[in-house]
Amino acid sequence: MKYPTTQAIRFLRQKKVEFEPHLFEYVEKGGTSHSSQSLGIDEHAIIKTLVFETNEKKPLIVLMHGDREVSEKNLARHLKVKSVSPASAEKANKLTGYIFGGTSPFGLKTKMPIYAEKTIFDLDKIYINGGKRGFLVEIDPIDLWDVLDLKEVEVGIGK
Fold it and tell me: pLDDT tens digits for 21-50?
């Protein structure tokens, strides 16, 4: 299968992480429900890479199940800050080097803290963005620990 060689793919290869590429047709505002339908996989196993900012404008990333949302209140409490909010698409692009909808936690342009929802590690396989819209990579969630400097959080709430 021919797939794009993105910054994320270069990063995964450099770290010798085994992955399986999955391409699908990207749909504007389709989100993880579209990805899960296109690929025939459980939306819970699709992991979103979300860029947030604290009230002090400090950026961070949260890795979250596709069928869950991040409780900004719980995240702020966990980080001991007044508030957190999603970064704008422009700001996220500047920080990560990825276009909104194609953000991957691998090979980021700017080093920032990465928080992962604890239950991600209960899954056998996860599907996470490969650095381009319509491109997920299937990996073992344990590999996230090996290649990213992660902290576990419990900030997920139902959609």
Answer: 999 999 998 999 999 999 999 999 999 999
Here the tokens at position 89 are 């698409």
The structural domain count of the chain equals: 1
* pTM for this prediction: 0.97
The CATH number given to whatever domain includes residue 63 is 3.90.960.10
Per-residue pLDDT of 83-109, as tens digits, reads 999 999 999 999 999 999 999 999 999
**With helix as H, strand as E and coil as C, how does the chain read?**
CCCCCCHHHHHHHHCCCCCEEEECCCCCCCHHHHHHHHHCCCHHHEEEEEEEEECCCCEEEEEEECCEEECHHHHHHHHCCCCEEECCHHHHHHHHCCCCCCCCCCCCCCCCCEEEEHHHHHCCCEEEEEEECCEEEEECCHHHHHHCCEEEECCEEEC
